[in-house]
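Page 42, continued from yesterday. The earlier attempt failed because a stray header line got pasted into the input along with the sequence. Redoing it now with the clean sequence only.
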Amino acid sequence: PNIPKWGVRHKYHGFDYVANTWKTKLHCDLVDSADNGEVLGLLDCDLLVTNSLSIPKKLDCDLTLTGSHVPNRPNTGVYFVRVSDVTKKWFKLWKNMVFKFLLDPQLHAKYRNLYGGINQAALCWLLERRGIDGIPDISVNWLEGAIWNCTHQNLTEFSSDTKIVHLTGYLRNACFGEVDVQRLELAEQPAV
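This time it went through. Structure tokens are written below.
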């Protein structure tokens, strides 16, 4: 689908947040159409898989998130969900919150400053309110970001155990020739 046809342009970030809102809608649709009990891995397309993605043992919960360099701050480029009626409701609430943030940049700014992005901000808004006002009290586990979602922010932790490198920030820029790799000062960081 052509995202700009939505006719919504985020006041501060153009179509980037519109694209992420579309991603959340698609993820919600996938969860809603899946059978209860299925485990879905929801991964961005800008990933480099470096190891087996066999289902981690920590998926004995509703939602399994990958962290970033900041404790308890998810990166929604890689996460897993165990489908149930509860998680289907959760995803609908998450999608609705993302749309609310998209249409209210001032409200979004408050949470973007805490959690980044639009999907992460909406997710954390919900996580803070689990069990309150009809928001399901879902169970959440965390996978180590340096292994399951290694970004430019934790690239120095890259190891032979790393399963996914998420091409964010300067990694994306370097891959697409948008930055001079020699200027990245990667001397202390491992080659990937």
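Notes: The chain is about 35% helix and 15% strand.
Reminder to self: strip header lines before submitting.
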